[in-house]
């Protein structure tokens, strides 16, 4: 039942939505468009996740972009996803912070030794959470993607 390209893309969107939920961010799908969007207070909704898929003989080549700490100024130079006038955002712009594993104390340094500042969000942390959710949505065991287990991801 996996030979359904639309289902595959929708499942990739589900993975991104689950990752956003780990950071307390409510994402949503826009009917007729591929990717994941978020609402922003006092501003238009913005795209945070994009998907590009190529399929040949049911072998996929795909790109998934979930903007984590992306320098959003680069989007001023292009028409993102071919959607003129659409905004783009990132987890960092939305204020996402690292999510501590259950029982762990929150990080108290930004990596530069400044005590009292929240630790910076990393692509590695988000990738590890993405892998866990990918495994859940697609029913696969994901190994080698960091130290976060399925039990550490909010259900």
Task: Give the helix/strand layout.
Elements: H1 5-22, E1 27-28, E2 36-40, E3 43-56, E4 59-66, E5 87-88, H2 123-138
Parallel strand pairs: 3-5
Antiparallel strand pairs: 1-2, 2-3, 3-4
Helix pairs in contact: 1-2
Mean pLDDT: 77
Head-to-tail CA distance between termini: 25 Å
Q: How big is the Rg?
A: 17 Å
Write down how many β-strands occur, each being a DSSP E stretch of 2 or more residues: 5
Stretches where pLDDT is under 50 for at least 5 consecutive residues are 102-117, 149-155
Given helix and strand content, the structural type is alpha+beta
Q: Roughly how much helix do the residues carry, as a percent range?
A: 10-25%
Along the chain, the helix and strand elements come as: HEEEEEH
Explained architecture:
With 155 residues, the protein is of the alpha+beta class. The protein contains two helices and five strands, in the order H-E-E-E-E-E-H. Strands 1, 2, 3, 4 and 5 form a five-stranded mixed sheet that branches. Helix 1 packs across helix 2 (123-138). The radius of gyration is 17 Å and the shape is globular. The model is unreliable at 102-117 and 149-155 (pLDDT under 50).
């Amino acid at each position: 039942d996996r030979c359904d390209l639309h289902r595959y893309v929708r499942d990739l969107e589900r993975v991104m939505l689950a990752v956003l939920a780990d950071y307390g961010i409510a994402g949503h799908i826009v009917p007729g468009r591929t990717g994941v969007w978020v609402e922003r207070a006092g501003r238009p909704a913005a795209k945070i996740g994009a998907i590009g898929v190529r399929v040949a003989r049911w072998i996929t080549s795909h790109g998934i972009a979930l903007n984590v700490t992306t320098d959003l100024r680069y989007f001023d130079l292009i028409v993102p996803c071919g959607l003129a006038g659409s905004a783009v955002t990132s987890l960092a712009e939305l204020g996402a912070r690292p999510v501590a594993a259950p029982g762990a104390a929150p990080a108290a340094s930004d990596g530069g030794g400044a005590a009292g500042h929240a630790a910076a969000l990393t692509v590695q942390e988000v990738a590890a959470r993405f892998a866990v959710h990918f495994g859940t949505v697609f029913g696969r065991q994901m190994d080698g993607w960091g130290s976060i287990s399925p039990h550490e991801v909010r259900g």
